């Protein structure tokens, strides 16, 4: 029975004498609702209805079923057994009062009733029942609460704990009773935090917050704890009531959300947002410790080419492995971030950040240049690294990042696969790169490209058997931009496909012209980029250009660099075979600078290997280069392939290569690349015959 505010309690009056009923009702009706029964069966019926009485005033002597029998019935029925009953009887003997109370009556009144006594007894019983009901409710809440509850005395010794406490902490009630709650402490919540907690409890009588406790099994867990003080009427502390819940799951969810917000989903490295937050803290810390910080901007060389030609899955796999190698190259305390795409940033601190970052950059260059195996495909990539130092190169995050980025562009511009520290004079470089990209986009439409042709001669007689087609770009402001500079950019911005097609069309149409002038025996050698190799319908396009210019397949040689062919050798073999089927000749360019698998090399249906000019250059002075040249020629011949030696500049080089039986030679010794109109003159010259 719990008091419902605003609703009067119901009392059932049971008496067979109307005058008695009248007296009782008159006394009670102002404060209570009244129901009346004039016999035992009617009383039992009313007592178990849904609108159950909170108290029954029961006459003992009634005809038929007397009060004692009614009482017995009430106590035997579950619905009525707890309803308080006051016997009202004319029998004032002690014996009869005891008998009534023994039966379970709550009180005994004798007739004639004295109204104030009646009122006081009724009030007392109802108040007691109400308090009992509230205690029962509180006990139920205590026992069944999902939150752990712990009651401690004024000395903060545990008095009572509920079942949820036992479940949550792992301790039985008997193990904690009489002990301090510090038995639950983990050591993770600091003394300062506890001091603040007690300050609030003592000052306000209340505290709520998160602390870390230790389960009996040793596990440390976070809990949300509420402590309130119970004071006596005089104001002194009687009890502390602590309730708490394990918030591990909530904390884990919060942590997961924080992690997602601060990390890159592909590599699980911290992201740009995290970098911003962390770099700010690093700068403060470095200042305090009088140290320095280095921001290293890392970009993978030609990543776009790999991604576009081998697909995003392979690109993603490569980025995951790069992230792993970067982590391996630095200390745990250093920060490795993926900004997006193929851009990574490392932040490290040191007394001498320049020295430390140079050391790390060397490690990264070595680690990232090692071969990768992604989805069964062997890959290679290299990084270009730009480094800015704090506070020397900038006092803000934006400036440090910008300067590291500029230094990275410089590293690309000076040949990739290296690192550069930021220098003020590099600033113009970023603008140059943007200008280059922008200019490249419109160069084709504006007719700024043209071709040069470099003769290839038969070693034994210097007869010109081919002309390598070399792309040139004359920009009105930038002047002559070397292909080494603009071709990688054209690849990165996705322009190389269109550009390559223009080269093929122009060169084939030029050969047709020369053919019509009577030059029947030279073929042209056109460079093909890795992205063109993956172009849809490449073979059909080549066939169609040849047809359009009335050329045979053998009039055209396609040169593919060793690294492009080995990027995905299976695909290269398939495309090469298709090109061979239309009669096109095939050469592997820059041989020796990439990483060839011999098992794949022998499967490629190629006619020529072009020995890179870096080996030819020092052929007379460097025994290693000489050995590579000899070995390459021997290998090619063993596979039935001809060798074109590139970059032959001196008679001595020529003699050496002739002696080693290089089949074809190309280089400034014979002719520099020349414009189309110079070619007929050269072909007609006595040397070229
Ligand atoms: N995908 C395409 N790549 C192309 C195309 N046109 C050129 N290229 C590639 O650009 C790289 C640089 O070429 P380039 O500056 O034209 O240099 C060529 C020759 O001028 C140079 N060479 C030739 N003989 C000598 C020599 O005796 N000494 C010397 N120092 N340099 C010499 O070599 C370059 C030709 O090299 P290769 O192609 O490896 O035979 C270069 O990688 C070109 O391939 C194009 O249309 N598409």
TrEMBL record:
Keywords from the UniProt entry: c-di-GMP, Phosphoprotein
InterPro entries cross-referenced by the UniProt entry: Biofilm_reg_signaling, CheY-like_superfamily, Diguanyl_cyclase/Pdiesterase, EAL_dom, EAL_sf, GGDEF_dom, Nucleotide_cyclase, PAS
PAC domain sequence ranges: 207-259
Domain of life: Bacteria
UniProt domain Response regulatory: residue ranges: 10-126
SUPFAM superfamilies cross-referenced by the UniProt entry: CheY-like (SSF52172), EAL domain-like (SSF141868), Nucleotide cyclase (SSF55073), PYP-like sensor domain (PAS domain) (SSF55785)
Catalytic reactions of this protein: 3',3'-c-di-GMP + H2O = 5'-phosphoguanylyl(3'->5')guanosine + H(+)
EC number(s) from the headed UniProt entry: 3.1.4.52
Cofactors demanded by this protein: Mg(2+)
Domain GGDEF: 291-424
UniProt keyword Membrane, yes or no: no
Positions of the PAS domain: 134-180
Enzyme category, top tier: hydrolase
PROSITE patterns: EAL, GGDEF, PAC, PAS, RESPONSE_REGULATORY
Positions where 4-aspartylphosphate occurs in the chain: 59
Gene Ontology molecular functions: cyclic-guanylate-specific phosphodiesterase activity
Swiss-Prot/TrEMBL GO biological process terms: cellular response to nitric oxide; phosphorelay signal transduction system
Domain EAL: 433-687
Keyword Phosphoprotein found: yes
Pfam family, any one: GGDEF
Protein name as it appears in the record: cyclic-guanylate-specific phosphodiesterase
Organism listed in the record: Methylotuvimicrobium alcaliphilum (strain DSM 19304 / NCIMB 14124 / VKM B-2133 / 20Z)
Lineage, opening ranks: Bacteria, Pseudomonadati, Pseudomonadota, Gammaproteobacteria, Methylococcales
């Amino acid at each position: 029975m719990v008091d419902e505010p605003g609703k009067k309690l119901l009392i059932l009056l049971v008496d067979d004498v109307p005058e008695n009923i009248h007296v009782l009702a008159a006394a009670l009706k102002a404060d209570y609702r009244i129901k009346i029964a004039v016999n035992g069966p009617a009383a039992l019926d009313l007592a178990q209805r849904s609108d159950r009485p909170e108290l029954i005033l029961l006459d003992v002597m009634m005809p038929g079923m007397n009060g004692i029998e009614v009482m017995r019935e009430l106590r035997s029925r579950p619905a009525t057994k707890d309803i308080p009953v006051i016997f009202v009887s004319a029998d004032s003997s002690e014996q009869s009062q005891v008998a009534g109370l023994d039966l379970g009556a709550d009180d005994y009144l004798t007739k004639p009733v004295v109204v104030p006594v009646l009122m006081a007894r009724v009030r007392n019983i109802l108040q007691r029942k109400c308090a009992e009901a509230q205690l029962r409710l509180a006990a139920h809440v205590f026992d069944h609460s999902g939150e752990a509850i712990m009651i401690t005395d004024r000395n903060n010794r545990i008095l009572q704990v509920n079942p949820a406490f036992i479940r949550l902490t792992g301790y039985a009630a008997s193990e904690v009773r009489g002990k301090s709650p510090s038995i639950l402490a983990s050591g993770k919540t600091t003394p300062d935090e506890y001091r603040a907690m007690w300050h609030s409890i003592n000052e306000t009588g209340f505290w709520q917050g998160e602390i870390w406790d230790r389960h009996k099994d040793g596990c440390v867990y976070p809990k949300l704890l509420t402590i309130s003080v119970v004071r006596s009427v005089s104001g002194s502390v009687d009890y502390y009531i602590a309730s708490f819940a394990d918030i591990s799951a909530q904390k884990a969810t919060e942590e997961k959300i924080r992690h997602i917000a601060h990390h890159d989903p592909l590599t699980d490295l911290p992201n740009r947002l995290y970098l911003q937050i962390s770099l700010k803290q690093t700068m403060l810390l470095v200042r305090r410790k009088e140290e320095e910080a280095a921001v290293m901007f890392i970009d993978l060389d030609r990543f776009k080419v790999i991604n576009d030609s081998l697909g995003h899955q392979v690109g993603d796999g490569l980025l995951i492995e790069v992230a792993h190698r970067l982590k391996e190259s630095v200390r745990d305390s250093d920060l490795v971030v993926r900004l997006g795409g193929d851009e990574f940033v490392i932040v490290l601190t040191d007394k001498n950040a320049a020295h430390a970052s140079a050391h790390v950059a060397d490690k990264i260059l070595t680690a990232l240049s090692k071969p990768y195996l992604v989805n069964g495909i062997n890959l290679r990539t290299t990084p270009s690294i730009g480094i800015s130092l704090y506070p020397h190169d900038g006092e803000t995050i934006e400036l440090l990042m910008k300067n590291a980025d500029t230094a990275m562009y410089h590293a690309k511009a000076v040949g990739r696969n290296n690192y550069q520290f930021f220098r003020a004079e590099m600033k113009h470089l970023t603008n140059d790169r943007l200008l280059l990209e922008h200019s490249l986009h419109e160069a084709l439409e504006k007719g700024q490209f043209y071709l040069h042709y470099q003769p290839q001669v038969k070693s034994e007689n210097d007869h010109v058997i081919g002309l390598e087609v070399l792309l040139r770009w004359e920009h009105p402001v930038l002047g002559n931009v070397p292909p080494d500079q603009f071709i990688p950019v054209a690849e990165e911005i996705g322009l190389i496909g269109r550009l390559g097609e223009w080269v093929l069309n122009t060169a084939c149409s030029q050969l047709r012209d020369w053919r019509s002038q009577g030059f029947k025996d030279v073929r042209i050698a056109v460079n093909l980029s890795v992205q063109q190799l993956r172009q849809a319908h490449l073979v059909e396009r080549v066939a169609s250009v040849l047809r359009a210019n009335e050329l045979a397949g053998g009039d055209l040689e396609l040169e593919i660099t060793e690294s492009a062919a080995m990027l995905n050798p299976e695909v290269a073999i398939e495309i090469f075979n298709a090109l061979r089927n239309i009669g096109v000749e095939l050469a592997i360019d820059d041989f020796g600078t990439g990483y060839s698998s011999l098992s794949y090399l022998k499967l490629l249906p190629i006619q020529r290997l072009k020995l890179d000019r870096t080996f030819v250059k020092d052929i007379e002075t460097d025994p290693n280069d000489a050995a590579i040249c000899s070995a390459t020629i021997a290998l090619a011949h063993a596979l039935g392939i001809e060798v074109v030696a590139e970059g032959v500049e001196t008679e001595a080089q020529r003699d050496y290569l002739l002696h080693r039986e290089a089949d074809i030679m190309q280089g400034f010794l014979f002719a520099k690349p020349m414009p189309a109109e110079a070619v007929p003159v050269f072909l007609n010259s006595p040397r070229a015959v």
